[in-house]
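Q: Convert this sequence to structure tokens.
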Amino acid sequence: MRFLPLAGILLAIVMVGIGIWQITETPGSVLKEEPPTVPPTSTPGEPLVITIQEGQSAQEVADKLEDEGIISSGLLFRVLVALQGYEDKLMAGDYEFEKGMPTLEVIERIRSGQTAPLVVTIREGLRAEEIAELMEDKKVVSGEDFLEAIERWYEFSFLYTKPYWANLEGYLFPDTYFFSRNMTAEEVVQQILENFDQRVDSDLRDEAAVAGLSVHTVLTLASIVEREAQVPDERPIIAGVFLKRLRRGMPLEADPTVQYALGNDPQSVANYGYWKEKLTQADLEVDSPYNTYRNTGLPRGPICNPGLDSIRGVIRPEQTDYLYFVARADGSHVFAETLEEHLRNIEQYGGR
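A:
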């Protein structure tokens, strides 16, 4: 006949005692009348972020969780923490809970450091400095640290065609990210690049290579398409126009490249933001390798971070006879095959 170890017997007695206590002493149980109604501190079902400070005791944590309605009993929390030997293993951080969660699940999250993620959405067409500001606003990392991190090298095959002097402008894939708290800027960038590797996958990169386009070239042109196109269906058409102009040695004459050049001037950013809307003739003559009015060919690198549709538009452009386009007031474009037709469109719709 086998006997349970003494520790097992004691644990079983304690757990039975906890069960009896919950039945008899927990407010709202069979033998305990309902407590007075307390107005909730949040909308029912709305997650609460609870901050646990370094060095807080199990009792302090239990009291905070009970006060917020995350758990029904701080005493039960303390007993379970003690039984599992977790008194010194509750990790500091910001945790996301819902009211009335199972106590054991709450304990496990805190013990394993499953902190609430920081959610950041990077929109298509943002330049690196705008993303850096977003990271700082969302308290992920400082903007300065982020900009320093994108100057470094990361081991991904799709970066092999990137010039050594270029930062990761264009490679910061637009998407919604869930960043762990206390990540370094390098870890944040690593997560973004891992997403790029999955979304702009090897099949798509191989397709670009067959078309004679490096990843860096694709992203450079796609970034211009991203800033030009307001109507999704026009992206492959605009990409086709730009590719045709490049093959013929014609300047792209794309306003967003000038806007990007101006965005490198702190005074211009202070006055007009990163994307100056109304460009003057003097703006079009700015001396910059990004000015596609003064220079033929592509600029030296991407001017923003394009989304997947713009990237696909460059790899799979629409074949047309168009060489020109001008924007309508609603953001759509009118396309033309000849300069004469283009000039008539400019007169009718304005713009360049």
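The longest strand covers residues 48-52.
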